[in-house]
Amino acid sequence: MHKKYGVWPAIQHYGCVVDLLARAGRLRDAEEFIRKMPIEPDEVLWRTLIWGCKVHKDMNRAERLIKRLECQKLESNDCESFVLIGNVYASAGKWHDKARTRELMNKRGLVKPPGSSKIEIYGKIHEFIAGDSSHPEAEKIYSKLVEIEKKLREEGYQPKVSEVLLEIDDEEKAFQLSHHSEKLALAFGLIKTSPGSEIRIAKNLRSCEDCHAFMKVISKIYQRDIIMRDRILFHHFSNGDCSCRDYW
Ligand SMILES: [Zn+2]
Ligand SMILES: [Zn+2]
């Protein structure tokens, strides 16, 4: 980069390489790359790699890196690393470790912001918080969700309950999952827009696996293109697939 284009690689460039390697499942190469880079890696780089471990289900590496991150980097008051760590543990069913992370967060007075999704309908922005029932049309929205879920189950769709970060029974987990903010926004969009039209949603956090899978199935069953921007990137759901190819 420098020889040919006169650009010194910055942390963001290193981040791109780590992301590419992690996406490709080359976790070992990604880790080695971080260790060998000539500038100090930041928390974002380690998180990118840990997220890669979660996606590619390399829990040993994830845990080792988490320990490192916990020792070295968690001095900052940034709750994103804690949230990521909690997610990794929850996805592996390690509820004890998940609870420990939550405790650490509480001790530091860090609160995960609630999930919030926005959707624009005829020039007006509607915002939904997870489990929200304050919208004037909340009743309609929740019954639409029940209808959608029934349809999805008939198609063989199973909620991904491992994503719910609590030790509760599966039925309760499924219930909580079904009220994530992007699902509320989507149900509202399906009610308010004409069949076949595109739905656009903006979310403040990363979506959970279940919401992502849910959007994919809806795009197929309801024949709707859904564009969802989350904390990290844009997802374009169409005919049962997502532009991110399930890596986000
Ligand atoms: Zn969700
Ligand atoms: Zn996606």
UniProtKB/TrEMBL annotation:
The keyword Repeat applies. Residues 156-248 form the DYW domain. One of its GO terms (biological process) is RNA modification. It comes from the Eukaryota. GO terms for molecular function: RNA binding; zinc ion binding. The keyword NAD does not apply. Keywords: Repeat. Belongs to the PPR family. PCMP-H subfamily. This is DYW domain-containing protein.
